[in-house]
Write the structure tokens for this entry.
Amino acid sequence: MTVNARYDKSNLFFESVVGWFFSPAQNLFSNSTKAISDVFDHYLFLVDTSRVNDRLLLEVDRLSRENNKLLERKKFLERSKKLVEYFDKDGSPFVVAEVIGYDATQWSKMIFINRGTDHKVEKKLTVMTDAGIVGHVIHSSPKSSKVLLITDSRSAIDSLFQKSRESGVTVGTGEKTCQMKFVPILAEVSVGDKVISSGLGGVFPKGLMVGTVLDVVKQNQELFQEITIVPSADLSHLEEVVVILPSKEEK
Amino acid sequence: MTYLILGFVLFFLFSVQTTLLGMFSLSGVTPDLILIVAVYCGIHSKKNGGIWLAVLVGFFQDCLSGGLLGVNSLSKGLAGLFFCALKDKIFVEGPIPISFFIFFTSLVDGLIYLLAMTSILGGQAKGGFFFSSVILFGIYNAVVAPFLFYIFDKGRKWINLRLSSQAFDTI
């Protein structure tokens, strides 16, 4: 056979017959051995597997939690970085705060933030995101503060249109939008116009984004237009905000 | 011990009210767990204890809200007073009576807040929006209340079994 292999000769007839004769038995033995081996490996020798499995499941749980925590931390840092970069350009001092709760009643639009007098957060300070004004601080304790959102029906911001410089007062409606009041009927206002704070009133500094015009209704017999404004900041998904602290000159 | 457990339950409910409940808002409306607690206290307390408890939870709610201090104390106190005074004359057992009375109380609570907001706080409330919100608020509370009542009942019975007899009914 060796000679045949070396010189590339075809198999002998005897070889083929023997191979054909023994192959079923070989297969049978081989499969049986494998099956027995499997029984030992995957059944009898699995005394510790359950414990290992439990340990691994715990490990997977721990790693998932850790991964989730790190992802959240990463997202938090990304958002904070965005806020800090935005407000750093402005130069005025600020403090980043996290939203920790909402109003305990149905009717007020208010949030709690985790910064208070310990962090120099006081009443009447402006609260913002990089998109625009969120509201102002109405009460501060050492570790937390209450922020009245601009959509609350008691909120009012003296504002003006960025393009036309027409002025008015942006008031909350208790819904998701605000209304701009006292804009003369002849003023040119169109949907999509940007509204900024005018700086009057003493709470909100001039030039901060308030919102965008969503709808304008002009009725001939009225003196003023009915203007609906969507706040620039997404007030329904607030996570981090910035409290603008008074600068040294303001103090 | 009774007061400690009560304090813990209130602490838990206030925490839920100011954090998690926002996730279950329907058109910006969330149920008022504190109102349900005030009504429950009014119905299940002995003598006039429920009124003071309702005023107290209302006061805490005022402290955790951006509104005028006292509005919730007043509305919850009135709810406590109403149910304390009438608890022997009305039957508040089973889901339908509970839902009915909670719906009714929610409307009163919303109207008190509307009056306070427009008259004292000088708020700019849109009537239509507010009334539709009050109705939805009432319905939402009416749906949630039977579950909370059931949990409170079970909790009260469980505590009474383990602590001195009728510990919770002494308030």
